[in-house]
Design brief:
The chain is mainly beta. 5% of the residues lie in helices and 47% in strands. It contains 1 helix and 40 strands. The strands form 11 sheets. Strands 1, 2, 3, 4, 5, 6, 7 and 8 form an 8-stranded mixed sheet that branches. Strands 23, 24, 26, 28 and 37 form a 5-stranded mixed sheet that branches. A 4-stranded antiparallel sheet has the order 9-11-14-13, with no helix packed on it. The longest helix is centred in the first third of the chain and has 28 residues. It is rod-shaped, with a radius of gyration of 57 Å.
Length: 524
C-alpha cells in the first residue's frame, strides 16, 4: 500500500481511537487506586490492562503483536510517562508515530537507525507503525491519583528565561528541563509528563518538544530566530490541571571590551572581549602580569590612582578573579607598590676621541625611591690625543669650551648618571734657537732651530739663497745686503710655529793700503 494510503489508514485508526480513548480514559482517571503495575514489557503475552499498565516497553519489533486495520486490535496499556524502546526495524519498516503522545529521545528528535526510543507524554491512544499496514496500539493511562501540583522550568527565574540572538548568527538551540512536583509523596511515585504549546512570539523562537536520553525528564527546546518575547504554555497531562507559562525574552547580543592598562609599567595583557545579551559583561582576570622597574605588582583596580587592588588572577590574596561590568568599554589599571632597591649616582668620563679616560665615579643608596645627590671631584688624569691638548670637560661632546676642570665639584642626583666629555684644543709647535745675524758673500750660512715636536716640516722665506735641508736652513749669500728671514715649522694636527730674524750679509774682505801709509784697511 502506498504511503498516502498509510496516512489515510493512520487517520482512520485515530478516529477509531478517539471513541475508545474516551471510554478508557474515563475508566483510568476515575480510579481511586491502581493495581500493581505490569512492569516492563520485554516480549511474550500482553498482560496489561487499564488499571495494570506497563511502566516501560523495551523489546524487539518481533515481540509486539501488530494490529492490521479493520482486523484484530491488540492494545498495550502503558503508564503515563513510560519509556519506549523498540529495536529491530529494517529498511522497509515505516517511520510513522503519534507525535501527540510520543516524544522521541533520539538526537535532535530524529528517528534514526534500526530502533526507536520515545516517551509517552500524554494520555490517550497512541500508534506506532511497524510495517506497511501494520501498527502497534498503545493506550496511555494515568493510574496514580497523586496529580502534579506545580511545574517548574530550570533556569527560568519567576517564569522568565532570557537569552540572546545574533542577527548574523550563529544561533543555537536552547535546552530547558521541565520538572513536576506532585501534591504528596506516593509509592509508587506518580508518572506524568507535560504538553508544551507555543502561544506567542512565533517570529522570536522555534519550539521543539524533547525528552532526556533516559526518558525521564521532558525538555523544552527552542531556537532564537529574532528579538522579542515568546510565551509557552506547559500543562501536566495527568488530568490534574497543573500548568505554567514560560516567558522567553530574546535580546540582541552586544560585544564588550576590557582593556588592561599597565599604569606606568609595561607588558599588560591583551584586550579581552565578552558577548552579552543581559547588558552585563564578565571577564576572568588573566594570569599575565605587567612589570615596572622598582615596583611590585599588586593586582588590578578600576581607578588609575588606586593603592589597593580589587582583582587578581585566580582570586589570590582574597581578591576577585572575575570582573563584571555593565559598560561595553571598560579599563582595569595595574596597582603598584614601590620596592626597596639600590639607587646609584654615576659620573662618567668620555675621552671624546682621545684615550685614557678615567673610570666612572659612583655612589649608591638604598630606599623605596631615590633622593638627594652626590658631589664628585673632577679627575686630574691626563688624556691623550694626537695633535691635541685636553683643556677640560663639558656636558656635550661638541662643546668648544670647557665647563669643568680638574678639581671642580660636580653634583649628580641618585638614580641618574652624568657624562663629562673631554674638550680638546689643537697642540702648538714651539720653535727656539739663536740664528747667526751675519753672513759673508760666498760663505756658507746655516741655522738649525730647536722644535718642541718631532717630525715637523720647515720652510724659509726672505732670501732666495736660503733653502731647507732636513731640519736645517742653509745657503751661500751671493750678494751683500740685509735680509728679513722667516722660518716656519709645520705638522699635521698642530698649530704651526714661526721665527723671524735679520741676517746682514757682508761683501768678501779685500786688502787696501792706507792713504796715510802704513795702515791696512778692509773695505766692507
Amino acid at each position: 500500500m502506498a504511503m498516502n494510503e498509510n496516512r489515510r489508514l493512520m487517520s482512520a485508526l485515530a478516529l477509531f481511537a478517539v471513541t475508545a480513548m474516551v471510554l478508557l480514559s474515563c475508566v483510568s482517571l476515575a480510579s481511586e487506586e491502581s493495581d500493581a503495575v505490569a512492569g516492563t514489557f520485554t516480549g511474550g503475552t500482553n498482560v496489561s490492562s487499564p488499571t495494570n499498565p506497563y511502566t516501560e516497553i523495551n523489546c524487539d519489533i518481533s515481540d509486539l503483536e501488530v494490529s492490521f486495520a479493520f482486523d484484530t486490535w491488540e492494545v498495550y496499556y502503558v503508564e503515563l510517562g513510560s519509556y519506549l524502546k523498540v529495536t529491530g526495524f529494517g529498511p522497509d519498516y515505516g517511520r510513522d508515530y503519534d507525535t501527540g503522545h510520543l516524544v522521541l529521545t533520539m538526537v535532535d528528535g530524529i528517528w534514526t537507525g534500526d530502533e526507536i526510543r520515545a516517551y509517552f507524554y500524554d494520555t490517550g491512544r497512541a500508534t506506532l507503525q511497524t510495517a506497511e499496514d501494520y501498527f502497534v496500539i498503545f493506550e496511555v493511562v494515568c493510574t496514580n491519583d497523586t496529580k502534579v501540583q506545580s511545574i517548574t522550568v530550570t533556569g527560568a527565574s519567576s517564569g522568565t528565561y532570557t537569552t540572546g540572538y545574533r542577527p548574523d548568527g550563529p544561533n543555537y538551540e536552547k535546552d530547558l528541563m521541565i520538572y513536576t512536583t506532585p501534591r504528596y509523596s506516593a509509592d509508587p511515585a506518580p508518572t506524568t509528563s507535560v504538553r508544551i504549546t507555543q502561544t506567542s512570539g512565533f517570529d522570536v523562537a522555534d519550539l521543539r518538544h524533547g525528552i532526556s536520553a533516559s526518558g525521564l525528564v521532558p525538555y523544552l527546546h527552542f531556537t532564537p530566530i529574532g528579538i522579542g518575547t515568546a510565551t509557552f504554555l506547559i500543562e501536566a497531562t495527568d488530568g490534574g490541571g497543573a500548568s505554567t507559562t514560560l516567558t522567553v525574552v530574546v535580546n540582541e547580543y552586544v560585544t564588550g571590551t576590557l582593556t588592561f592598562n599597565a599604569n606606568g609599567g609595561s607588558g599588560a595583557p591583551a584586550d579581552m572581549e565578552d558577548e552579552s545579551y543581559t547588558g552585563k559583561f564578565y571577564y576572568e582576570i588573566p594570569q599575565q602580569e605587567p612589570v615596572r622597574s622598582g615596583y611590585g605588582f599588586l593586582g588590578w583596580a578600576e581607578s588609575r590612582y588606586a593603592t589597593e587592588p580589587e582583582y587578581f588572577y585566580d582570586g589570590q590574596n582574597d581578591l576577585g578573579w572575575r570582573y563584571s561590568t555593565s559598560s561595553a568599554a571598560s579599563t582595569l589599571y595595574a596597582v603598584w607598590e614601590q620596592t626597596v632597591q639600590t639607587y646609584t649616582a654615576s659620573l662618567v668620563y668620555d675621552a671624546n676621541g682621545g684615550s685614557g679616560a678615567p673610570a666612572s665615579q659612583t655612589s649608591s643608596i638604598t630606599g623605596t625611591s631615590p633622593s638627594g645627590s652626590k658631589s664628585f671631584i673632577v679627575t686630574d688624569d691626563v688624556l691623550v690625543r694626537d695633535g691635541c691638548v685636553c683643556v677640560g670637560w663639558a656636558l656635550s661632546s661638541g662643546a668648544a669650551t670647557a665647563q669643568y676642570h680638574a678639581g671642580d665639584s660636580v653634583s649628580v642626583s641618585y638614580g641618574s648618571s652624568l657624562t663629562l666629555y673631554a674638550v680638546w684644543e689643537q697642540a702648538s709647535i714651539t720653535m727656539t734657537g739663536s740664528p747667526n745675524g751675519f753672513g759673508v758673500v760666498g760663505t756658507s750660512w746655516s741655522y738649525a732651530p730647536t722644535l718642541s715636536v718631532d717630525g715637523c716640516t720647515l720652510s724659509v722665506s726672505g732670501a732666495s739663497w736660503m733653502v731647507v735641508s732636513g731640519d736645517t736652513v742653509v745657503g751661500t749669500p751671493t750678494s751683500a745686503g740685509t735680509f728679513e728671514i722667516t722660518v716656519t715649522a709645520q705638522k699635521a694636527g698642530y698649530q704651526s710655529a714661526t721665527q723671524t730674524f735679520t741676517v746682514k750679509v757682508l761683501s768678501n774682505l779685500s786688502f787696501r793700503s792706507s792713504p796715510e801709509g802704513g795702515a791696512i784697511i778692509y773695505a766692507v
